[in-house]
Structures are given as C-alpha cells and as structure tokens.
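User: Predict the full complex structure for these chains.
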Amino acid sequence: MRDPYEVLGVEPGASDEEVKRAYRELARKYHPDNYADNPLADLAQEKMKEINEAYDAINKGAASQQSYSQQTYSQGYQSYQSTSNPTYAQIRRNINLGNIQVAEDQLTALATRDAEWYFLSGSVAYRKGWMDEARRNFELACQMAPANLEYRQALSMLSGAGVYRGGNGSGSHVDGCSICSSMLCADCCCEMMGGDLIPCC
Amino acid sequence: MFGYVRPLRAELRVKTLEQYQAGYCGLCRTLGKSFGFAARFTVSYDLLFLYLLLSGVQDPAERERCRCPARPWRCRACDADSDALRYAASLNVILTWEKLGDSAKDERGLKRLAARLGRLALKRAYRKAAAQEPDFAARCRDQMETIWNLEAAKEPSMDRHADAFAQILRLASVWFSEPELRRPVEELLGHVGRYLYLVDALEDLPKDAKKERFNPLILRFSVRNGQLGDEDKAYLLLSIRQSLNRAAAALELLPLKGGEEILHNIIYLGLPAVLQSVAEGSFRKRQKRMRSGT
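Assistant: Here is the predicted structure of the two-chain assembly.
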C-alpha cells in the first residue's frame, strides 16, 4: 500500500484538520456522483477506495473519524427500478458492464420506440459522450412518460448548467441552496414524525 | 490543426509558462530535426497539449537551450528530445497532412492552391511520419473517409460528425500500454475532440453559411444570416461545456507528476475561455491583434 499521507497529498506531520480537509477535497473530487454513467467509473471507485483506506490508516483508532466508505452509494443503474421488459433488462446490464456497442445494436434491432427505448438510447449516447443526442433522447423519453423519475433525473443532469468543477478545488462544500433544501427536507421529515422544525411551514 | 487547445496565460505562474514555452520550442525543434525545416511550420498548440499530456505522467523533462530560427538572436529553453516529443511530432505531421488534404478538397481558389502547395512541401515529412506511426496514419486516413462520407450523406446528427473526428484523437492514446493510463487519456482526448470539432464548426458558421458549404450546425439548428438563434446557441454552448466536464473528470483520474498545473489550466480555464471568445465572435480578431503585436 502507498504511503497514506502521499495518497492524501499532505505532509506526514500534518494536523488532523489538514488531513481532514485534504480528504474531503479528494472525496468530493472522486465522488461516485461525479462519475455516474461514466466509462471510467471503476477507476474513480478504485481511487475513492485508496483515499478512504489512506484516511482510515491515518485515523486508526479514532472512532469519530469515519470515512465515506461506511456509506453506500447508488451505483449507476443498479439502484433504478427494474424494468418489466426482459430485453430492456439485458440492455441495461450491457450498459452497466460497459458493452456499449452491444447495447446499441440491441436497441437498433428493436422495433418499438417507447419511452424506455429513448431513455436507454440516451444513456448509450451519454456514455459515448454524445451529449446532444443524449439530451434529445432523454427529452423524448420524458415527453412520453412525464411521470417517470428516472428519465427526469437523467434529463436534468444534462439540462442543468453542468457543474464545471474548479481546477485547484477551491470553493465550499456547502452552499446556501443546499442548506435551505436540507432544512426543508428535515422539516418535512419532522412533520411526518409529528414534530416540526420550521413552525411556519 | 486548429490551435484552440491553449492555456489561459494570465492564470499561469511564470515557471509554468516557461514550461509551456519550453514544450512548444521542444516540439518545434523535434519537428525540424525529424522531418525537415518545412515541418516546423506545422507546429500546433493542439499537439503541444498532447505532448504535455503524454509527458505529464512522467517527471518533468530535462531542459536544454536552443536557438529559435524565427528569432535567431536569442536562445530559449526547450525540452530535450524524448519519445513523447517524437510521437507528438509524428502525429503533428500526419494530422496537418490530413487537414491540408481536407482543405484542398473543400476550399476554392487561392486557399486550395495554398493547401496543395503545403501538401507538396510536406510530402516527404508525411511519408516519414507515416512510416513511424503506420497504424495511426492508416486509421487516420480511414477516419477522414468516414468524415467525408457523413458530410456527403448530410447526416443530421452533429454528434455523429463530431465523433468521427474525436475518434482520430482517441487513437493517439495507444501510446500508453497500461489500461489505467490509456483509458482516461482516450476518454479525455475523445471529449476534447468533440469540443474541437464543434468549436470549429461554430467559428466557421458565418463563412460556411455565406458560401453554402457544409457545416454540421446548419443541419442541426436553424441558421439565419450565418448566426444561431440565442436559444440554440445557449444549448450548443452548454452541450460543449458538458464535454469539457467529462474531459475534466477523465483528467482527474490521471496520476500527473510534472504537468499537473499546465494541464489543469488548459482544461479548466483555457478551453472555456476559447469557447467563450469563439461564441462572442472575438476569437480570430484577438488572434490577429496578438500577431500584429498590440
């Protein structure tokens, strides 16, 4: 195993605070969300694992310092609802495995053009980096099945102002927007359980 | 090539700018040494980027002093000859050769003549480069055919055109045999290729529309007076930026040693700045101003 301090890019004598900051910075960079549906997702995952191990190695014994490895992430399509159509299930598997050409051929061979077909075509295009085709297919899928959350998520990923991460990684981890939305979210949860966090709503 | 892949100089530290210039001089010198004096004129920022990418995972290159034929009165620092430099130089010659072939086919009049003369001057250099990188030269040739066929068929998908071009750049990644290096480089070059193709199409749009020449954007969007509508333009810019996001994500997976700062600058700052100035229509104007020295 590589020197954990080298992995995190800090000096061996670095303070806890420095280590934590370096770790957070790297974890944000290689977070699986940044590599969703990316052909390099496996490399990013390895990198994340290396960072987590390095962080754990430095903080051995400190129970409060837990790395992100304890959390589980949604991995690509695995978390999405399963499809009823066996051919689509097979195509999804191929996309997940990175057999993009096979998935594309399977899609072309199909006669039906329903919402899921457009969604999967969009996913194939996205994998290949064909951003225009991907977005157009996701738009069609959403038009045909406006209630489908999976399709809407895919489209919003491409129609939002793409998060162009700053080169040397400056910038805070929490922005005003996410604080507000977390608060609202927490409020909803509280209300559901009978309490209330924000009395006015 | 196009010359769009360049750093945002104002954000570079002095030593990084020196590293960039030493790379440029090194590439130019290797072109001259390997392929003759005429080949020096083909030196391009795009292939310099490739060299920086290939050498970025190694320790910084050794520096030498060399005399620039354009300014013979002063010595400049330049990167010592290396495998990465020779590879980038060969690809530079091959890609320039294909680009000139494309111009000779598309252009009319003086420009066509210039492209043909250029090809004549580069003929020996091309043969030598193609002998050094036979696979790349042959597949590059095939890919040019694919591009022309798509153009002739008036393929409406701009991604398909862009991908046919991006494929050429992806081929350059075979330089790395280790998959953990080759895969991110291939991905990175593919997305930069899409960026290049679409930025070039956007830059050429007014001219192509006037002369009724092929341009993928004319087939994809409705173009009036050689201009895209505001909405279409915003859509296109977003789509190109998304390619840059993916290129950046790939760059982060490369274990960079010497080239980290310059490569980050190019991908995160340089390419968006060029995109912005092309979108505003100020890219070529700025070029001319820089050349006249003001």
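Confidence is low (pLDDT under 50) at residues 70-80, 164-194, 197-201 of chain A.
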